[in-house]
Amino acid sequence: MMKLFYSECRKMKWPLIFLLILMEVAVSFLLAADSVKALTSYFAPDWNTLYFQGVSKHGIFFLPVFAGIFAAFLCFYEHKNGAWKQLLTLPFPRWQIFLSKFMMLMVLLALVQLTFLAGYLITGNIIHVEGSIPWKTVLAGVIGGWFACFPLAMLQIVLSTRFKSFGGALLFSISTVVPNIVFTGFNSNIGAWFPVAPPYYAMFPQGLNLSPRLEPVPFVLIVMLTFLIYLAVGLRSFGRKEWM
Predict the structure, then answer these.
(1) Is residue 184 a contact partner of residue 98, using CB atoms and an 8 Å limit?
(2) Are 60 and 184 in contact (CB under 8 A)?
(3) N or C terminus of the chain: which is more exposed, having fewer CB within 10 Å?
(4) CB atoms within 10 A of CB 225
């Protein structure tokens, strides 16, 4: 398994990956910083405000889209020139090949979350927001948002092994953004079944008028259940598919 994981690491175009992540964080916090300054009549210009303004862009738009883009990258080479057949001739079970791609995707999403955290701290110091950093809220959001990506990441790997076109996978990812705005307006018992919504639920701080209605125990159970469903479907589909 680890040999397959290292192989996935070597295939990634890391300069492009880091460039995309840095661009996303820069856009998220440029917009967040502008909102902090523009909405001082409604929200205190402090670390809490900067955080939820950043999450409102990152969690609902960029993080789900990145899950799809990176999953498409991970399967791009195999869809070229029948490389799936070459990969499957290696002495590794199919389930290990499938899970190695999922593991690599979760590592990439962890990098996204860590860069988001760094962008939050840097932006706050640049614009000199007030108060102290709500470390408990921020760390819970960053880690919880990564955990909440498990079902989405698994679904994106399943889809990316099926989509032969990188454009098709990207289009699907982008097309989920608009319905995500709707689903995150529901109670988490409903919205969390939509795989793109859980990262936003997990990252947005509770206790605000804008906070999504999150019930922690059912939310965690839904995330775990949907992940297991997508995992079972993905392993079955990948194991049975005849690759051309």
Answers:
(1) no
(2) yes
(3) C
(4) 13
